[in-house]
Amino acid sequence: MRVRLVKVLLMIVLVVIISGCSGPANNGLAKSETVKYTLYIGLNDKDTYSQKISTQEAEKKVNDIALKYVDGFTGCIGTGAFKDEKGMVTYENTLIYTFYSVTDEQMKRIMDELLKELNQNAVLIDKQKVDYEFYKGQKL
């Protein structure tokens, strides 16, 4: 009887362990995987620490540069802030662009042009593996 009880308990433990090894349940969304890049482009000039061109003009320049290298993006306008080495806070308008299914090389070319065109020291880039899907509604 005792041996049988041990076997039953062992089977229960194994079933619990094995069931925990399965991947997450698919909820029907995000069926493709890619790399997503997000650029954060401050608009203050690197030499004067103030914005020399309008946000709309900068946005047009970034759009034109990006579309030389990629087929599409999503852009929006935000506000950024930073403290310099003396603790002085500077606020600046920031363009935020998101790109899907592009390469590191494409992003480097875009950033190289942006640095020159907008007179920037640096551009912040965020790179993440993501799951995505173009949702087209439920099929009835």
TrEMBL record:
Protein name, UniProt field:
DUF3574 domain-containing protein
Q: Which InterPro entries match?
A: DUF3574 (IPR021957)
